[in-house]
From TrEMBL:
Transmembrane intervals: none
Name used for this protein in its record: Methyltransferase type 11 domain-containing protein
Cited Pfam families: Methyltransf_11
Coiled coil: none
Highest rank taxon of the organism: Bacteria
InterPro entries referenced in this protein's UniProt entry, alphabetically: Methyltransf_11, SAM-dependent_MTases_sf
Domain Methyltransferase type: 15-105
Length: 150
């Protein structure tokens, strides 16, 4: 149920960054999305494929298929911590997205949208939605209109 609500935020071809076991990628695929999970963990890739999703073993900071063309990038369950630098991760995610694309980020329950506004702005993104989805809290980031960050 909570997963469904998060997946409802995904539009068009979706890249799940740090997809873990792959349940979300599999469900997006069942829904008819072009969906790809990437993860540095071989076990995550195997699990995602076993569930019926597509996944590749990739470091998000290295070569990723479809760079600049993804409509949604999904970061769930703590994946904002990949690389231990949210600004660097968001900057990288922005380059993976189509300029009209969006990044759906699941954050911890105590997170205020303002907590992410700074790193998002520095990465050239802005918060366009913040909301609780079941027990999970998500922010949606889109390309900033003020021309910040390259
Ligand atoms: C906190 S887990 C979240 C798993 C999944 N998103 C979920 O919702 O269950 C973070 C995931 O990111 C993966 N990961 C860590 N560093 C990565 C990197 N540089 N590029 C891609 N995936 C990475 C880990 O292997 C792990 O599966």
């Amino acid at each position: 149920m909570d997963d469904d609500a998060i997946l409802d935020l995904c539009c068009g071809p979706t890249l799940h960054v740090g997809c873990g076991p792959g349940g979300l990628v599999a469900e997006l695929t069942r829904r008819g999305h072009v969906a790809l999970g990437i993860d540095v963990s071989p076990a995550a890739v195997v699990s995602t494929v076993d569930r019926g999703g597509s996944a590749l073993r990739r470091d998000v900071f290295a070569d990723v298929p479809g760079q600049g063309r993804w409509h949604t990038a999904l970061l769930t369950d703590g994946s904002l911590a990949i690389g231990d630098d949210p600004e660097a991760l968001l900057r990288r995610v922005r380059r993976l997205l189509d300029p009209r694309g969006r990044c759906v980020v699941e954050v911890g329950p105590g997170t205020d949208p303002d907590d992410l506004a700074g790193p998002a702005r520095a990465a050239g993104l802005r918060v366009v939605h913040a909301g609780r989805h079941g027990s999970r809290f998500c922010l949606v980031l889109a390309e900033s209109t003020d021309g910040a960050a390259g």
